[in-house]
Protein 1
Amino acid sequence: MHMNPEHYDFVIGINLTPEEKELSVLFSGEARPHPGHTIGPSVHDYYLIHTVLEGEGLFQSGTFSAQCKSGDTFIIFPGALFSYQADRDAPWHYAWVALQGIGVQELFLAVGITREMPFMHSANVAELHSLYERIRNSFMQSAYPQLESLEASGWARLLLHQFGLGNVSALPLHPAEMPEIIDRQIDQAIRWISLQFHQQISIDHLASSLGYHRVHLSKAFKQRTGLSPKQFLLKIRMDKARDLLGGTLTIEQVASSVGFNDALYFSKQFRKHTGMPPSEYRASLRRGE
């Protein structure tokens, strides 16, 4: 804990190696300012999030202004002119975290935070406080600062997740606009097949795991993709096989990599799908056809 003449108490953790490009924590802290303590007007070149744990204070950024109390979070965007002031009768106790990275603004949008509305409220103050402490405690000046930075970034993502849970009305996708359950599960099936095509995928098992009969799932799947699950799986495998045949793997290795234990059966399926056997397709690639 570090004492600061403008605060009753003040503690901070600082990242020695903020190298993650998408999201990186620069520092995180917590303080109880004196009554009327003011910051700004000024600007920062990083994102700075404050969550009020107790007390009150005034936050202003551009044309936005809010009297903040326990559970309120305000966000300072890079380049935005801001100021904030602790209440003179009930000065706030707040925690903060500074972020940088090319993915931060997109992550903010995902949880309903924008430059125009840099403010939200959450009822779960204890959980937010715990996450701020975990971020700050990541920086214990160990022998592995890069690992500290990774840990802090992980906790920061969980903090943003908690903001999203408390801010669902502002999320880009409102409950009334959410897809039907079957649509979500078709998305899951598409994603699963696209990622696990190299495995021995059972369409019956996939349907069962999603809570549908194979016929029902296949019908909904074909309405979405134009293909049955089995046809979609074969297409994904053949598309990947085309890519791999441009490399140095053997035909047997390509077959195994796209989910075929039998290279001969793979060759037959590939020829049926593309009009030529794998060896001829590879030769055509090398000829530049």
Note: DSSP finds ten helices and ten strands in the chain.
Protein 2
Amino acid sequence: MTTSRRLVLRIALVILLAGSLLLQGFLPVLAEAVGGGYTETERLVVPYALTAIAAVACLQVCLVAGWWLLARARRGELVAPRSLRGVDAATAGMVAATVLAAAPLAHLLVVVGVGGPGVVLALVACVAGGAGLTRVLRSLRADLRCAHTTDADRLPAQASTRPSPVSLRKNGIARPRGAGPQ
């Protein structure tokens, strides 16, 4: 990845994070404006706003994990077992954000019994978008795991002697527990 692409991605991540922080500040006002005027939903404004703030916080976890993975890619450490933690954090954040965003919509439709085509469309878009992005993250995890396994298999074959345990740890490759020195 070129330096200019990394810079563009970092700028995009900063803009998205700043926008999400701004959104979190305006969500209570927005929730009051949308649901506070109706008797069926005025008691639900605060819980729905808190749920939306939590969903945005989960998306912020995804953004921070993306920043961390981008930093690892810059250092050439993306294909390492530790990188899977960042992808797992982003996946967990995406799943939690999807559930938190869909819960008020489903509650509004099923329990409260209000809403219309717009709420149904928002629910479908939320679930489909969250599921799609989660699938992309799971594919990224599988690709990183496959690349790590390929690098681990290729490393001893390229060396004239077997690598030492210190060089294996330095390259992010762990020996199985109980395996003796090579």
Note: DSSP finds five helices and no strands in the chain.
